[in-house]
Each structure stands twice: as structure tokens, then as C-alpha cells.
Amino acid sequence: MSLADEVYQTLKPLPEPLVQEVLDFALFLQQREEAMAWRDLMQAQTTALNDWDNPENEVWNDVPAV
């Protein structure tokens, strides 16, 4: 039996308000994971941008945009 089947079999006999509570919690966990992934991406981007912000790259500041 797959984990999804086991979850379904466990939730099937529960009253609908409890199933809704489990669903709400699962959605909360999903949102938390997405927020953590977004935070990690932003942190990696900030680190990468900090590497570009150094005196050696100042010469590029005066190059006109095309």
C-alpha cells in the first residue's frame, strides 16, 4: 500500500470537519515549504549579487545600457 493510500484509508472514516483540519494542515505545510524554498532562493541570489559588488567591477558602472 502506498503512503497516499494509507493516508486515504486513515482519513476515510473520520468526520468531515476533522478531514478538513488535516487538509488545512497539509496546505499549511505546503505553503511553509514554498516559503522556505523562496527564502533560500533569495538568500542565494543576495550572496551571488554581493560577489558582483566589489571595486574591481566599478568600471562597468559607466557603461551605457544598450
Explained architecture:
The chain has 66 residues and is an all-alpha fold. It has one domain (3-51). Helices cover 70% and strands 0% of the residues. The longest helix is centred in the middle third of the chain and has 37 residues, at 16-52. The radius of gyration is 24 Å and the shape is rod-shaped. The N and C termini lie far apart (59 Å).
State the helix count.
2
- Strand tally: 0
Average pLDDT score: 86
The number of domains is 1
Structural class: mainly alpha
Helical residues, percent? 55-70%
Largest sheet: none
Shape: rod-shaped
Unreliable spans: none
Distance between the termini: 59 Å
> How big a fraction of the residues is strand?
under 5%
Supply Rg: 24 Å
Order of helices and strands: HH
What distinguishing features does this structure have?
66 residues; mainly alpha; 2 helices; 70% helix; rod-shaped
Summary?
With 66 residues, this protein is mainly α.
Annotate the secondary structure layout:
Elements lengths: L2 H9 L4 H37 L14
